[in-house]
Amino acid sequence: MANPRRTKEEQKVTEAPQNRRDTKKGTGGASSDDAGASAFGMRIENLSAHYGSFKAVTDVSMDIRANKVTALIGPSGCGKSTYIRCLNRMHEVIPGARAEGRVRLGDQDIYARDMDPVRIRRRIGMVFQKPNPFSKSIYENVAWGARINGYKGDMDELVEHSLKQAALWEEVKDKLKKSGYDLSGGQQQRLCIARTLAVEPEVILMDEPASALDPVSTQKIEDTMDQLKQSYTVVIVTHNMQQAARISDYTGFFYIENMGDPGRLWEFDETEKMFSNPDRKETEDYVTGRFG
Amino acid sequence: MSQSSTEVTRQKEQEPGTGGNFKTSVGARHGWDRFFTALVFAATLIGLAVLGVLLVDVGRQGVPVLSWHFFTSLGSADAENAGFLPAILGSLWLLGIVLIVAVPVGIAAAVYLEEYANDNWLNRLIEINISNLAGVPSIIYGLLGLGVFVYIFGLGRSILTGGLILSLLILPVIIIATREAVRAVPQSVREGAYALGATQWEAIRHHVLPQALPGALTGTILALSRAIGETAPLIAIGAVPYMTFLPEGLLSSFTAMPIQIYNWTGEPEEAFQNLAAAGIVVLMLVLLVSNAGAIWLRNKFQRRN
Ligand SMILES: Nc1ncnc2c1ncn2[C@@H]1O[C@H](COP(=O)(O)OP(=O)(O)OP(=O)(O)O)[C@@H](O)[C@H]1O
Ligand SMILES: [Mg+2]
Asked: What global pTM score does this model have?
């Protein structure tokens, strides 16, 4: 029965973390104050994640390319959220949760003993599966993160620019003082994206950011994503195969072979290959919708 | 009501699920619904009725005594001259001390226990103890205060001693109420802040505490009301039965509203009974105002959230 495990996932030869600096296309005339933002890639080696004694994800190795969109797909419960939370040390916030292995941002090991998780999260932002705006005004939702990080520029401009990037500006420009809670679910999610962009991280992790969005705002977010990867490295979890195929450059498929096993990275490759002729049968079944 | 229930019945007849595996007795279920509505309403009425009777009784006796003289005069052994002013001022002093001591300490302790404390035996012990302390009879706090503040620290039978005892007394209540409010703030709020590079304190200060505030305030003000009405521990440390002068400072001897009322009720003369009733009316009004304040504050902050 034991499927002969492949020695190693076929991964592309890893490049040194890039530090590319694309010039940013101005968004609707707003000043692009993040023109200086330079993206890093990430390299994950043998990462395992536990909740107490339960091992949710095991032995994941993956290279996340700078200035690319990497999509993570896989059946529910296979550990995508758990894994992505390990990438900015958010996993350990849950009592009893811990991660093993190595995660590097550029050439820094983010799990090194002297590494401050606060500093890491400031550089690797995250948008969550469920929208979680702050109970503050729309303006403050966006401005807060920038302010605690000591943003010195023009705050009004930053707020406007971030909201435009998240395709929310037009809908909220006349009610910036209103509470973030008063927005619809999809608008709240875009607000969360805006506040993440406002602190100008290097990597943006998104856990199913579009699951609460209608097709129109999903489209807006996807357009945004295309722009984002010019200045950021993006990792996105999604259940939507078309979305993964449309927006990502690389795709990782997570899978649990036998009930009760931890989730594994089953296959990881360029998106085009993953969706046209993946190496493993399970991947093909999944992306073609034969199960999942 | 009746219109909607006929509609339900009509639907029921057409319901395809009727028969088969479902006994669709919506009518009977509505009956139970109405029955329990009536039951809980009756329970509410009982509490209100008893309170109403008490109020009317006390009001009839006390309201005629309420006069300018009653509010502005010092205590006296003579019913005609006796006033409530030292007791009112004494209670205000106590309240001030409790506000300054118990509220910050209680909220800080709650934040520590809820946000920072690890799940180890020491913290569990502290938690269990706090829950137990909330149930300790108030007289015990009075005796403790007598031993610690009066005899060991030498603070005397003073306003300060009284205020500290009341602070200890309501500290567990404030801690428990605040913890509950802090716990009710969803974890996702903290995570949202962390994801922007916030420290734990920044997340607590800017998001958790403001969101927990309405709940914490409600619990705290209810605890303060309890402190205002508390009698036994103050008697234990020997608050003065009637004061012929006004409290002058933290170390002054004092009386408080419930003490004064208690002492007046102990007098045989009818005039003192009326004074006591008047005192009760004032105390009730203060409690009513402070509880109304609690509700107002809660609504105000909830709207803002
Ligand atoms: N806080 C937690 N405590 C304990 N176990 C957890 C916790 N969160 C997730 N798990 C478990 O870890 C495993 C992976 O869960 P995870 O949320 O990472 O899956 P997922 O791939 O994101 O699923 P979905 O697509 O439904 O979001 C599951 O078995 C889940 O039950
Ligand atoms: Mg998930």
From this structure: 0.79
Task: Name the average pLDDT for chain A.
Answer: 84
B203 to chain A: which residues are within 8 Å by CB? none
pLDDT > 90? residue B12: no
Is A51 a pocket residue for ligand 1 (Cβ < 6 Å)? Answer: yes
Q: What is the total count of domains within chain A? A: 1
Domain of residue A88, CATH code: 3.40.50.300
Distance CA B82, CA B76 (A): 5
Question: Does residue A245 belong to any structural domain of this protein?
Answer: yes
Query: Does A62 have pLDDT greater than 80?
Result: yes
Interface ipTM > 0.90: no
Tell whether the model's pLDDT for residue A191 goes beyond 60. Answer: yes
Ligand 1 centroid – CA A88 distance (Å) = 17
State whether B191 and A199 contact (CB < 8 Å). no
pLDDT score recorded for residue A100: 93
Q: What is the pairing mode between strands A233-237 and A250-255?
A: unpaired
Spell out which residues of chain B touch residue A133, defining contact as CB-CB under 8 Å: 192
Contacts 24+ apart (CB under 8 A), B201-205: B202/A148, B204/B111, B204/B115
3-class secondary structure, A256: coil
Residue-range definition of the domain harbouring residue A131: 38-287
Residue A86 Cβ contacting ligand 1 at under 6 Å = no
Q: Is A94 in the pocket of ligand 1 (CB under 6 A)?
A: yes
Residue A143: name the closest of A131, A129, A153, A130 by CA: A153
Percent of residues, chain A, with pLDDT higher than 90: 64
Cβ of A76 closer than 6 Å to ligand 1, yes or no, is: yes
pLDDT, tens digit, 9 for 90 and up, residues A5-40: 433 333 333 333 333 333 333 333 333 334 334 568
Burial B260-269 (b: 16+ CB within 10 A, else e): bbbbbeebee
- Condensed to tens digits (0 to 9), the pLDDT of residues B167-192 reads 999 999 999 999 999 999 999 999 99
Q: List the structure tokens of A189.
A: 């999610």
Position A267 scores a pLDDT of: 94
Q: Using N-to-C axis directions, what is the helix angle for A185-198 and A215-228, rounded to 10°? A: 10
What is the largest distance, in Å, between two alpha-carbon atoms of chain A?
Answer: 63
Domain ranges of chain B: 25-65, 69-304
Q: Is residue A28 part of a domain?
A: no
Which atom of ligand 1 sits closest to the CA of residue A79?
18
Q: Is the domain covering B69-304 a CATH 1.10.3720.10 domain?
A: yes
Is position A71 within any domain? yes
Q: Does residue A65 fall inside a structural domain?
A: yes
Cα dihedral A184, A186, A189, A193 sign = negative
Cα B216 to chain center, whole Å?
11
Nearest to A149 among B190, B197, B207 (CB): B197
CA distance A61 to A252: 10
CA of B183 to the centre of ligand 2 (A): 23
Report the pLDDT averaged over residues B255-276: 89
